[in-house]
Design brief:
It comes from Mucilaginibacter ginsenosidivorax. This protein is of the alpha+beta class. It has two domains: 179 residues, Jelly Rolls; 113 residues, Arc Repressor Mutant, subunit A, CATH 1.10.10.60. Helices cover 49% and strands 16% of the residues. The chain has twelve helices and twelve strands. The strands form four sheets. Strands 2-11-5-8-12 form a five-stranded antiparallel sheet. A hairpin with a 2-residue loop joins β6 and β7.
């Protein structure tokens, strides 16, 4: 069984890092206060954001090494794990961590919209790399959260703390938008690989064996998380990744419909549809005609 060190509460994580617990559901953790420790695989049952403030190699994810430069943010949703077990390797943690428990969110605007922050499901190698100015904004948000925690609990605490967490996350959406733009060349390469992946998929027997390719399948083949891939495709093309796949399917369908030796049902199965009626419904939705109407119009 995999050896994973799990943290269920904010207090547990604070104690692990020699940090005082000012609030049972949220904390700004100064990782430099922690004792040097062996490399371990860690799992957090709360939202975790790491701000790496210096270049260091103290985190590993999967089988890959990553260097985190000053101003890199890493996001983990509850239940995610990070790192690897190397008990013989000791390191001194650095940087800051914002941790907040899901129990902090019920009844708040952030609680109703936490799923909008899709970067919590990005892979570690899809981290947010910030400019110095952006890092200062993040530090200001962290300072406001810490200020409220140090004041002690009162009737305003939850509202102000959650509001500042939400403000920080909203800035991160803006910063990720900027990162998508500044990495436009690399992302165009991924879009081209996406198109090639789809072309190769439909030239193979995969549609009959596996069905239609979904977003998770394509993202996995491109070594990206589904959320990062979906957000990148949307920023780059203006379409969702699912729309991109569906438009490719429709382009192929139009070509196949011109072959009158095949029935609509046969074409649907060739493209990977389990049920022909689903193919006809999507065709009508995307093109405004049923497959048979399209065939007659292009006779």
């Amino acid at each position: 069984m995999e050896n994973v060190l799990k943290f269920d509460t904010i207090r547990d994580y604070n104690n692990f890092n020699n940090q005082a617990t000012l609030h049972p559901l949220v904390s700004i953790v100064d990782l430099s206060k922690a004792d040097p420790r062996p490399a371990r695989r860690l799992c957090y049952n709360f939202y975790t954001v790491f701000l790496k403030q210096i270049r260091c190699g103290d985190l590993r994810y999967g089988l890959k090494n990553y260097d985190y430069e000053e101003g890199t943010l890493i996001f983990l949703a509850p239940g995610q794990a990070i790192g690897e077990n190397h008990e013989e390797i000791y390191y001194q943690p650095q940087g800051l961590a914002l941790v907040f428990h899901p129990d902090m969110l019920p009844g708040t605007h952030l609680g109703r919209h936490i799923s909008d922050y899709t970067f919590f499901s990005y892979e570690v190698h899809e981290a947010l790399h910030m400019s110095e100015e952006e890092r200062q904004i993040v530090m200001d948000c962290f300072s406001k959260i810490e200020f409220e925690l140090k004041r002690g609990l009162d009737k305003h605490s939850k509202k102000l703390v959650v509001a500042n967490i939400e403000l920080f996350l909203d800035y991160c959406i803006r910063f990720y938008d900027r990162q998508f733009l500044t990495r436009e060349v690399a992302h165009k390469g991924i879009i081209e690989r996406f198109e090639t992946l789809l072309n190769d998929y439909f030239r193979s027997e995969n549609p009959q064996k596996l069905g239609l390719p979904n977003v998770a399948y394509c993202a996995g083949k491109l070594n990206l998380s589904a959320n990062y891939f979906g957000d990148m495709v949307k920023k780059e093309t203006g379409k969702t990744a699912l729309e991109f796949i569906q438009l490719k399917v429709m382009d192929l369908a139009k070509e196949k419909i011109s072959d009158r030796d095949k029935t609509v049902n046969e074409i649907a199965y060739e493209l990977g549809f389990k049920y022909p009626q689903h193919f006809s419904r999507l065709f009508k939705q995307r093109l405004g005609y049923t497959p048979n109407e399209f065939r007659i119009l292009n006779n």
